[in-house]
Design a protein that fits this description.
The chain has 12 helices and 8 strands.
């Protein structure tokens, strides 16, 4: 974080300052607007080292040498603090794959019963006699019996037909009860917790990311469509305005930003996914890396490191 007088502070800054003091290094900070600019500047030799929330990735490692990871975290998800609109929750449930599966299962069961009742009754019951007419009557009887409406009408007359009718009435009561309970539970959960509770929910909502970030790369691999923003604050403002349903970003940074400017309207989910490591980037073949690594390891194993994390993030 940059203060009004131009000085910097933060987990990475504090760690670098302690390392530089131990190694008696003379240095100055140079500001870059994005992580990609930090990597590019380090690759081109304009920076002797780059430190921030720089995630270690394979593509970046091809251009720079990373030091020892000093912080392990993952991606976090910011969502609106208030619950989702009930109508929006209903719409999403009715268009979800799970709902289609449940309806298909009920229809399939009804069709199976209709075929069986037609086979049992077609030669003994005039209501189910004939081809198309008998099948149509079977469909109607199976549907009305499933909904417990008019099950006594056109009742089966054969023993197998009546046994099937009894079994279907009992089974349909249970099936519809489970189906109704599932929808009610889902609606209640979404009303209380919102549209997104974990990573799997991201496939069915509008997801924002910081463009050209590790979060965008990860979600692209998961086949999750995203909306890119120049920085996290811009994405959080879009989330606050309702233009997206969730923002995915490095979790510690997301927690800090929400705490500082959006705590009344947004929250960060407890879930962390896509493990990431932060490390200092050096130009390829830099002699400085090995020296800094040793001091970084000493510091992150000390009590000072735990106190620094608690001071900035309230613990890990």
């Amino acid at each position: 974080m940059k203060a009004a007088d131009g000085t910097w502070r933060g987990i990475s800054i504090d760690l670098w300052q302690r390392a530089a003091t131990s190694l008696h290094l003379s240095y100055r900070f140079a500001e870059a607007s994005t992580v990609d600019d930090l990597i590019k500047g380090t690759t081109e030799g304009r920076f002797d080292a780059a430190i921030a929330a720089i995630t270690v990735t394979a593509s970046r490692d091809r251009n720079v040498d990373f030091g020892q990871p000093y912080f392990s975290t993952g991606l976090g998800v910011a969502v609106p603090a208030n619950s989702a609109s009930p109508w929006e929750s209903i719409r999403r449930i009715f268009f979800s794959f799970g709902f289609v599966q449940a309806v298909a299962a009920l229809v399939g069961m009804s069709v199976l019963v209709e075929l069986l009742i037609w086979l049992f009754e077609r030669r003994h019951n005039e209501h189910f006699g004939g081809g198309t007419k008998g099948l149509g009557s079977g469909v109607w009887w199976s549907t009305t019996t499933m909904t417990q409406k008019g099950s006594a009408q056109r009742a089966p007359t054969t023993l197998p037909g009546r046994l099937l009718a009894i079994a279907w009435m009992v089974a349909s009561v249970i099936a519809i009860a489970v189906f109704t309970a599932g929808i009610t539970s889902s609606l209640t959960k979404r009303e209380i917790q919102g549209l997104v509770q974990n990573e799997s929910d991201l496939t069915s909502v509008r997801v924002g990311v910081v463009a050209a970030s590790a979060a965008q790369d990860y979600l692209a691999r998961q086949r999750i469509r995203t909306y890119g923003y120049a920085n996290a604050n811009e994405g959080l403002r879009a989330l606050q305005a309702g233009r997206i349903d969730a923002l995915v970003y490095d979790r510690p940074l997301l927690k800090w930003l929400v705490l500082q400017g959006f705590s009344s309207s947004l929250r960060v989910l407890d879930a962390t996914f896509a493990e990431q490591n932060y490390a200092i980037a050096f130009p390829k073949g830099s002699a400085l890396r090995e020296k800094v690594d040793a001091v970084v390891l000493d510091n992150i194993e000390s009590e000072w490191w735990g106190e620094a994390l608690f001071r900035y993030l309230g613990g890990r």
